[in-house]
Fold each of these.
Amino acid sequence: MKDSTDSNLKLIVFGIAGLIVLAILSMAIGKYAVSPSTILAVLLSGITGDTSGIDPIQSTVIWNVRLPRVAAGLLIGASLAAAGATYQGLFRNPLVSPDILGVSAGASLGAVLAIFLEMPVPVIQASSFCGGLLAVGAVYGVGAAVRNRDPVLTLVLAGVAIGAVVGAGISLIKILADPYDQLPAITYWLLGSLTAVTRGDVGSILPAVLIGFIPLILLRWRMNVMTLGDEEAQTLGVDTRITRSALIAGATLITAASVSIAGIVGWIGLVIPHIARLLVGPDFRKLLPASIMLGGGYMLVVDTLARSIARIEIPLGILTAVVGAPFFLWLLASGRKGWS
């Protein structure tokens, strides 16, 4: 037990150190280049209050543009990866991603509807967040009404059905939207981006993300038992219904919060947990922190590429798909077994 604790501590320390380095490099790269030493000086001046020798333009770029974007990238990448690892364990399927229960589709419908009604950005984000929660609530409602012997299969099928209905709603709104104003905004949002993220946006999702992580962290010990199946878990004294509900609620909350400010950023919840599993194994006590840190780092790298490799910013969903789709095909072709 002591060796396992020491190993987890080393993993977390090295992971945090790596994220700090990536965060500084991400803030340094962009159309307006800033050296890492300048970034550290600006951040230190913000803490101490001593702004002597600090360029106001550089300070504005770092505090109002780069830092919020980096913080949002860390939160969103960590959240989607953690949610993906949780869903894959709960549903005992390596091809499961955070949108399995329709949370991403529901959040998209909420945002698209708000854009169609020409609502301000805060309302769009709130509508997206609520839409994701309502979609998963509908899935759970269907699952409760259909008393199937296999609750996992029931939830998956209900998620597919609700996702199809929500997808039809999104398509209908896109047809009705103004093709010169609303439709481009809807399309760009659905592709995912951190372009317009502010410090207020990060602060708005932070409470939901922290609350959502609570059950994932507290129940990480029982997650290993849940991967064995309901009958085995119940034999070992785990209340599978309550545990599954708590874990799904936490994963749904952090996914909905992420989608609400960044749009649809696919593949992270599918790819990153697999990479983490290859590095640290299937033990959820190690898999969760590894997924969190890898997800945050991966999101920083992708976002940095999105705003630096071309004259115009590339939507995040395009870049994550470029990596995720080949990985998905490899996973299908290799037929990996014993992943859990």
Amino acid sequence: MSFIAQLAHAEAQHDSLLCVGLDPEPARFPGAWKGDPARIFDFCAAIVDATKDLVIAFKPQIAYFAAHRAEDQLERLMAHIRRAAPQVPVILDAKRGDIGSTAEQYAREAFVRYQADAVTLSPFMGFDSIEPYLHYDGKGLILLCRTSNAGGSDLQAQKLEGGERLYERIARLAAGAWNRNGQLGLVVGATFPAEVEQVRRLAPTLPLLIPGVGAQGGDAAATVRAGWRGSSAAGTTGAIIVNSSRAILYASSGDDFASAARAAALATQHELSAARAVLR
């Protein structure tokens, strides 16, 4: 099943737009696990098991594993998700961006070593930094477009010759000439709902990965209004994948961390679903 099909299936099966980001920080682990990077897999697997029926996707952030020499634990986690939640696609948040043989190796890392269903990429070196990933049939490539950080405006909001902004150019390319395998998506931050709406206008059928809800302060309801379009006579628009990480992972610092994570995920899922129901 392709990444796009997996998203549609998970959204329908779980009635969810929520993506749980897996950003393990051992310093914030509960109880006896606190400060122990050897427990990264155990912590993340417990979060997965507690939330697997509530999500449209999981999104492990590779730097949180690599910084602790825990790439082997990331491999174990990816395998665990495939066993425990085979219906849920996994987005490897790597933000890779390079060309030629280096890009080929990054693509192999994401799709062969880690068996990810999709990967986040930086498009700022142009199409030839994206092209090697297209060789993996059915895999999703999610391009940075209008990111959730304030500093993203330094480049992404700048006007190009002709008047369009850089993030708008990326959205047009991703929805058009670059989308040769029909598997491209875009990253747009919940902290900029007007830009989410503009990207959706320019790329009506692409999935949007939307970080920034929760600890970064993005508004869940505004995000759904800006990015979700449901079905129309022209067909179903792209999914929105609304990510929350820290607000769910660290909902409790006690032994009840997994059940607290589930409660936080359930509350966010309900908030997103309520906002979507208004638009139907």
Amino acid sequence: MTLSEMVNIHSFRQRIVVLLLLSLWQAHQSPLKGEPDSLFRSSEVLTMELRTDFRAILNTRTEDAEYQNGEIRYTGSGNKVVAIPVRVSPRGKFRLKPENCSFPPLLLNFRKEDVRNTLFEKQDKLKLVTPCREEKEVIEEYTIYKMYQKVTDLSLKVRLVVINYIDAATDSLILSGHSFFTEDKERAAERLNATLAGKSVTPYDLDHDSFKKLALFQYMIGNKDWYVTSGHNIIIMEPDDKSGKPFAVPYDFDFSGMINAAYTKAKGSPSEPSSARRQYKGLCYTMEELRDAIVFFRNLRPEFSNLIKESDLIPKSDKNEMLNYIAYFYSLSRSRFMIREEIINKCETKALYNITVK
């Protein structure tokens, strides 16, 4: 081999190495599948203004209410004010009714071209959780979402915001305070390499481990306002690669005893203690099957506690109530007798779902 040929081979190899490094750099620069959309990549509290015809929204609080044209404004990079057209409508069921909540949850509907290169890029229909009666209830529910993210990645992302709600017709401030966005279920499914399930399922059809953690978490926070078969406050997703069973993603934790919101208590009925909402709705597991999950939750206790303690937005007395509420779960988890009484003896059997026991 001549010297010239050797130089050419060396030069070719160098070009291959450069191309490989370049491709790796480009892959690193492009958004990875599994990464949240830009709105949900930060835990920094976002300040913004939402302007629309709130008089029409408050006067037409129905599930088929028409959208009202509006605009979102927030400060972007370089202290530049970003204004995005948006359509706004009231949403929900229980919280939609004026007798339950003074201000309804909202649905924001964006056009793809309007959100391009903004913080709201890739958002289409986005749910906004607003103060029902007290602002602290919003913060506490947001905190529970963050707690569940510690349990599993199979969860919805959330973003806390401070919003000035401006009525466009009168140019007046009608409400100001904390709210939070929840990740759209289709965007979450794409992030989790999954698709939304197109058929109804029972808990027995779901991934065994993730559902066990979900059921124990709901028990810990005292939330029984969820059902798998009807899809009530539960989203069912299926892995794209069909490598595993479907899994459930919960949302709407406002009826939990941990929050104990006044609006969730039935009018005219005796006030039930928040502990009465703690009802195990999981499947039947043996003591041995529960043991690993309980150890898992024990290891998470410091992280749960820190999320509550470090929130400057939750009053100290409410922090103590939240910490005491989950303390019951950890006390129970150390007693085989109580685990049997509260969980094993109250589990949901196959007969409940008309599944033949083989």
